[in-house]
Amino acid sequence: MGNEFVKLNEINMLFSEGTAALREVSLSFSGNAFTAVIGPSGSGKSTLMRLINGLLRPTSGQVFVGDMEIARAPERLVRQTRRRIGMVFQQFNLVRRLTALENVLVGRLGELDPLRSTLR
Ligand SMILES: Nc1ncnc2c1ncn2[C@@H]1O[C@H](COP(=O)(O)OP(=O)(O)OP(=O)(O)O)[C@@H](O)[C@H]1O
Ligand SMILES: [Mg+2]
User: What is the model's pLDDT at position 91?
Assistant: First the structure.
């Protein structure tokens, strides 16, 4: 695996209405770098994130997180991996009474037992 933590291999993502959100995208993110993906509205940034954490399956191509191909892995392993990926949704999904830091940490709640997560 080396330093390549996330790898996309010739990804195409077509939505049912025929929108091609991503076309032939190949790229990799190293596990020890800070990477920003920027682009205009509708260029596919959120779609890219959803593919990486397994919320979407690509129309074709492969997404690897470490050695695991997300679309072929058992759901249990995908969920385990998703716990290691913090994602703040773009709209409506921030918890208003929490701070920005706490909103980001919500992604880690799956690591705690229910009592500790309830007691924060
Ligand atoms: N669930 C969906 N069904 C159909 N089309 C979608 C869906 N999600 C995204 N798209 C389309 O895919 C393209 C990429 O959208 P995406 O949300 O990934 O862009 P983005 O780069 O995150 O944009 P923004 O900067 O506005 O957040 C757009 O044309 C969008 O309309
Ligand atoms: Mg977006």
Answer: 67
Which residue is listed with tokens 């695991």? 68
Asked if 49 and 11 count as a contact pair (C-beta separation under 8 A), the reply is no
15 ligand 1 Cβ < 6 A: yes
Q: Ligand 1 pocket test: pick from 8, 37, 47, 51 the residue with the most ligand atoms within 8 Å of its Cβ.
A: 47
User: Cβ distance 48 to 37 under 8 Å?
Assistant: yes
pLDDT of residue 103: 81
Architecture of domain 4-77: 3-Layer(aba) Sandwich (3.40)
With a 6 Å cutoff on the Cβ, whether 46 touches ligand 1 is yes
The domain segmentation of the chain, as residue ranges, is 4-77, 88-120
Q: Is 23 in the pocket of ligand 1 (CB under 6 A)?
A: no
Angle at CA of residue 105, ends 100 and 109, nearest 5°: 145
24-40 pLDDT per residue, tens:
999 999 888 888 999 99
Backbone angles phi and psi of 74, in degrees to 5: -60, 145
